[in-house]
Specification:
Elements: H1 2-49, E1 64-67, E2 75-83, E3 86-99, E4 102-111, E5 116-123, H2 175-198
């Protein structure tokens, strides 16, 4: 009996070692491809928010880290678009901390005049079929921010329609769009307050997650 147990234990140990080795080998062989795909996905998203013809720098290489309560209080990334080294727009990651199921990660692009160039949802855990309409592949709602500007500190249009604002909410899911509207407005506020210093910043995202 004891011999059988020891034999099975050795087999399990060998199996575990073999599986670990295979996983390690696959990771080693695919990590560069995964990084390249993630980088291409980032470039595609940035290009969808800030048209390539509007700038002549590599936005993805102009990234630096910032942290501010207006951006959710977490470390965020800023990507700059410039034309002949003149400011054009910035794409800023932001966190909406008050989603229905937790944080909602966004990428908000703002033109130099303060108008929104585009918004994309990067990550969320909202309810499928309700809150997930903040994803472009599920709904065009996220496009409703494009072209919008903040008209002063008392601009109460930046709210969902249920709260008297200009953005639709989803049937049965007001909390999610309300959180996104609030986070996009805060990000535009941050850009308007800091845009001069942002375009003086050196890139420092290398190695940052």
């Amino acid at each position: 009996m004891r011999e059988a147990i020891e034999k099975n234990a050795k087999l399990l140990a060998l199996f575990a070692i073999a599986c670990t080795a295979v996983v390690g080998l696959v990771h080693m062989l695919t990590k560069d491809r995964i990084v390249a795909q993630q980088q291409q996905q980032l470039i595609n998203t940035l290009n969808s928010l800030i048209p390539p013809e509007s700038h002549n720098n590599e936005i993805s290489q102009s990234c630096f880290i910032v942290q501010d309560e207006l951006l959710g209080g977490y470390q965020q990334k800023v990507y700059l678009a410039t034309e002949n080294e003149q400011p054009v727009a910035a794409a800023i990651t932001a966190t909406a901390p008050d989603g229905y199921n937790g944080n909602i990660e966004l990428l908000v692009a703002v033109k130099l005049d303060g108008s929104v160039s585009g918004v994309r949802t990067l990550k969320h855990q909202e309810t499928p079929g309700l809150g997930d309409k903040i994803e472009l592949r599920k709904s065009h709602w996220i496009l409703s921010f494009t072209g919008k500007k903040i008209r002063g500190e008392q601009d109460n249009r930046w709210a969902v329609a249920k709260d008297g604002g200009m953005f639709d909410q989803f049937t049965g899911a007001t909390i999610t769009p309300r959180a996104v509207v609030k986070a996009v407005k805060s990000t535009v506020d941050y850009f308007n307050l800091h845009k001069d210093e942002l375009f003086q910043h050196d890139a420092n995202c290398q190695g940052a997650k």
